Amino acid sequence: MTHVAATTPYAWPFDAELDVDRLAIVVCGADDHWGARTPADPSASARLAALVQAGRDAGALVVAIHHVPIGRPAPTLAASAGPFATEPGDLVVTAAGVDGFYGSSLDAELRRRSRDQLLVAGHGFEATVHSTLRRANDRGYECLVVADACLCLTDELRAASISSIEMSGGIFGAVGATEHVIAALTAQPNR
């Protein structure tokens, strides 16, 4: 049994079987548009980079989502995303809106790779992260928002964003912290 420590409102993952072969780290807002809209938060950016690297090191799939509404030019990876950058083997998905599943291949790619445990973080906590999380939950994915690796558009909405995930016993998933996720990932058998 492997849980990520100190997740709320329930022990994540629900089935007590953290499995990097089933795990994807979904980085929402990984484009210039969302990077520019999100106020700089060096601590959250550093935690996001550490989360992504720990996931790569453990063998999890890293997914970078570019959110490009129809009619807008395709973005490049956000220079303001701090130290996070895609690497060979990462999956880059372009969504047609705020929700990472909308008009994209995200669901098909995750299912093709048998990834049903999602760690969700990135730029636009109350927008891209939340919208993608809700759609993932509706599609049956087991989701953990790594809240301290999320950059907010408006920091005043951070507490409300967390609360709405946790309500009703975790209606949209669970919430955790980078340090506990990394500890769980490094405790996994070497790949």
Account of the 3D structure:
- This protein has 191 residues and is of the alpha/beta class.
- 35% of the residues lie in helices and 20% in strands.
- The chain contains six helices and six strands; from the N terminus they run E-H-H-E-E-H-E-H-E-H-E-H.
- It has helices at 32-37, 42-58, 106-112, 125-138, 158-170, 178-186; strands spanning 23-28, 61-67, 91-95, 117-123, 142-151, 174-176.
- Strands 3-2-1-4-5-6 form a six-stranded parallel sheet.
- The two termini are 18 Å apart.
- Mean pLDDT is 92; it is low at 78-83.
What topology emerges from the helices and strands here?
Layout: E1 23-28, H1 32-37, H2 42-58, E2 61-67, E3 91-95, H3 106-112, E4 117-123, H4 125-138, E5 142-151, H5 158-170, E6 174-176, H6 178-186
Parallel strand pairs: 1-2, 1-4, 2-3, 4-5, 5-6
Largest sheet descriptor:
6 strands, parallel
User: Roughly what percent helix?
Assistant: 25-40%
Number of strand elements = 6
Structural class: alpha/beta
Shape verdict: globular
Please work out how many helical segments DSSP would assign.
Answer: 6
Beta fraction of the residues? 15-25%
N→C terminal distance: 18 Å
List SSEs in N-to-C order: EHHEEHEHEHEH
Low-pLDDT segments:
78-83
Radius of gyration: 15 Å
Mean pLDDT: 92
- Side by side, the strands of the main sheet go 3-2-1-4-5-6
